[in-house]
Design brief:
The radius of gyration is 23 Å and the shape is elongated. Helices cover about 35% and strands about 25% of the residues. The protein is an alpha+beta fold and about 290 residues long. It has helices at about 25-40, 65-75, 135-145, 160-165, 200-210, 220-225, 235-250, 280-285, and strands at about 5-10, 45, 50-55, 60, 80-90, 95-100, 110-115, 120-130, 155, 180-185, 250-255, 260, 270.
């Protein structure tokens, strides 16, 4: 990287208590907040040095707003994850902004730097660089942040050992589900968790049914929403089912009065709408969209 000159270093006040913050949830909030301000979802890159780059191409953000809205949060994350926000100043030179501990103990400073040493008011093409220990933690954190979308107020998180431990102190939006759902706003309604599922994640839920016969709790809510015409995107569930069928080697042959499902080894798969689970009923409604009772 270029050698930077400090153009401004100022102490700022921490308005809220910052101890006891869940850093992984805090990083998600940071990415969600900036993404919402920009109406832009970033590209996420994992680097060999263990850092994660969160890049907003063709973006512009006032430095004063970054400090006012996210300075406290960056300070709270400082102990576990180093954060530096890079970009360009005036479209001409590399620049950066960061929050650091100051003197005396308990005080905080923000610092702006660039190549020329000339002060700047905005950063363009923001790139948030998060330092991690690398390895599995970096992969887990990158996966978490890739799920953050400014259009959705919740985040679907894989229940890995690491994430369950990291998020254990937070209340769950929907306990008992296959994925864990993390609210990204204070007033997020419980119903928004379903909208946060990606097509790939829904396909994973379908694969649980097709390969292991397990119906995740998500299907109970999805089936109810489908029946009351409140499902956000029916096609996402159909598309993801087609993906899971293909990945599992399951074929569907439509016949005059129904259809036939077979595994890759030729074994027939039979589901009954009256006695089946919510996942099975959802599958039948999508593959055979007629009035089922």
């Amino acid at each position: 990287m270029y050698k930077m000159k400090t153009v401004r270093r100022e102490e700022f006040r921490i308005k809220e208590k910052i101890s006891g913050v869940c850093e992984e949830a805090g990083l998600s909030s940071l990415v969600y907040g900036i993404s919402t301000e920009l109406s832009l979802n970033p590209d996420i890159y994992e680097r060999e040095d263990g850092s994660i780059w969160i890049y907003y191409e063709h973006s512009e953000f006032p430095c004063s707003l970054l400090l006012e809205e996210y300075g406290t949060l960056m300070a709270a994350l400082h102990e576990k994850y180093s954060i530096v926000i890079y970009g360009s100043a005036g479209g001409r030179e590399a620049a950066q902004l960061q929050v650091e501990k100051g003197e005396p103990e308990g005080s905080w400073c923000y610092e702006k730097s660039n190549i020329s040493g000339t002060d700047f008011e905005e950063l363009e093409s923001l790139c948030i660089v998060v330092g991690t220990e690398g390895g599995e933690k970096e992969k887990e954190l990158a996966e978490l942040l890739r799920g953050v979308r400014w259009e959705h107020e919740a985040l679907a998180v894989r229940r890995s050992w690491y994430m369950e431990k990291a998020l254990s102190g937070l209340e769950e939006m929907c306990p008992g589900t296959y994925f864990r759902y993390l609210p990204l706003t204070e007033d997020a309604e419980k119903a928004v968790w379903m909208e946060s599922l990606t097509v790939t994640q829904i396909a994973e839920l379908w694969s649980l049914l097709l390969e292991n016969g397990v119906g995740a709790a998500e299907f109970e809510y999805a089936l109810e929403a489908l029946e009351y015409k409140n499902l956000d995107s029916v096609y996402s569930w159909e598309l993801s089912l087609r993906m899971a069928l293909n990945d599992s080697g399951v074929t569907v042959q439509y016949e005059d009065h129904g259809f036939r499902m077979e595994r890759a080894d030729g074994r027939r798969m039979v589901y009954d709408y009256r006695t089946g689970t919510a996942a099975e009923k959802m599958l039948l409604k999508i593959l055979f969209p007629v009035s089922l009772t």
